[in-house]
Amino acid sequence: MSQLNYLEKLLDGVDVEWKPLDDISVKISSGGTPKTGVAEFYDGDIPWLRTQEVNFDEIWDTGVKITEAGVDNSSAKWIPANCVIVAMYGATVGKIGINKIPMTTNQACANIQLDGNIANYRYVFHFLLSQYEYIKSLGSGSQTNINAGIVKKLVVPIPCPNNPEKSLAIQAEIVRILDAFTAMTAELTAELNMRKKQYNYYRDQLLSFEEGDVEWKTLGEVAKIQRGASPRPIAKFITDDDGGVPWIKIGDTETGSKYVEKTAQKITKEGAKKSRVLNKGDFIISNSMSFGRPYILNIRGAIHDGWASVSEFGDKLNSDFLYHYLSSQNVQNYWVSKINSGSVSNLNADIIKTLPIPIPCPDNLEKSLAEQARIASILDKFDTLTTSLQEGLPREIELRQKQYEYYRDLLLSFPASPAGGPKSHSDEAA
Q: What are the phi and psi torsion angles at 47 (to 5°)?
């Protein structure tokens, strides 16, 4: 029997009743925060959860621990393991988690202790994951917060409500199928993390040179280093015209990407003249946010003063070799040491110019570039495996996640709630 036919048979003719979370829970509560600045309330051994740690996954530990005194003198209260937790405030609103150990939480967590005679907690977890965008849309205020009252009214489809044994069996089977996809994603993610460590290890090994193997030059000696510039006021120069110049901002870089491929905005040619225009193949380095992270331009574009540029290095340095070197932990440590030891708080062009760069085989340019290319080729394979959305593990993880979402939506496609709650995915498709 095919997977699809099996799923259709599992849900064939099943009645469903949409029930508010409050009706299928033993308790729904929020926590509290011990008064900050009181030393006796913190650094204890009691796990205390904050919403930034709620991220669509199981929660086995917390970054902050509090003391018994912290619990006694605040609204922080213990919750048992296997509560479904909904983040209610700010940027994390609507995110879902499950605490796998007893813990306390802050007031921004809605802690749902399900009634195991009615609902499987992991079934509710998967369903609420499918409703993330809907839950987030219920927020109000400048931070789009929700509250425990809203969470209590969220409705969940309960199959075969008049036959609890059959209902829980169906829920458990849905959980089994969805957990299998989740486990595959978790295994791939664990492998990806291992490969990243491997990549970092080999990169640092290949870019560590014995005395005499290389000649050390400063980056300023082998490349042109400049700071970007921003025309003022920038709004005057933003354009939709096809003849505009790509305007490269921090938001145009993608996490884990080696290249800048496109930009959200363009500036006029007049604005570009007041900025710093770079060519394809030049490097940019952020000098403030996420400072030190290098990117290679795959486009011609202009940069603002939050960037520094590295150009005119092609006669001595292989571009990919330079990218891996600038990405190494030794270089990141160098940037940090320079900023911490001086009066500046950002990575300016003068600091970047001082970076020591290893030049292999300095007396033979052809041999030098060939050796750089060899090293870069080895590291490129690791880089592709750990960052590529077309070839590497990130692509596999993305495909497994889409597969999980497909079957989740298929398994949880029940008739829409008569109470006007979230629509089922089958109704949205119709």
A: -60, 135
- Per the model's pLDDT, the better-predicted residue between 257 and 418 turns out to be 257
- Nearest-angstrom CA–CA distance, 19 and 157: 6
d(CA 193, CA 241): 43
Residue 248 has a pLDDT of 93
Using pLDDT thresholds of 50, 70 and 90, give the confidence band for residue 9. Answer: low
Q: What is the DSSP string of 298-341?
A: SS-EEE-TTEEEEES-TTT--HHHHHHHHHSHHHHHHHHHHHHH
Please answer whether residues 33 and 64 qualify as being in contact, where contact means their C-beta atoms are separated by less than 8 angstroms: no
* Structure-block tokens of residue 378: 């080895």
Q: If we measure between CA atoms, which residue out of 195, 230, 221 comes closest to residue 355?
A: 221
Contact 411, 154 (CB under 8 A): no
What lies within 8 Å, CB to CB, of 340 at 6+ separation is: none
Residue by residue, DSSP assigns 111-173 as EEEE-TTT--HHHHHHHHHHTHHHHHHT-BTTTTB--HHHHHH-EEEEESTT-HHHHHHHHHH
Higher pLDDT residue, 371 or 198? Answer: 371
- Going by C-beta distance under 8 Å and a sequence separation of 6 or more, which residues neighbour residue 241? 266, 268
DSSP string, 270-303: HHHHTSEEE-TT-EEEESSTTTT-EEEESS-EEE
Are 209 and 298 within 8 A, CB to CB? no
d(CA 297, CA 280): 5
pTM of the prediction? 0.57
DSSP string, 48-88: EE-GGG-SSEEE---SEEE-HHHHHTSS--EE-TT-EEEE-
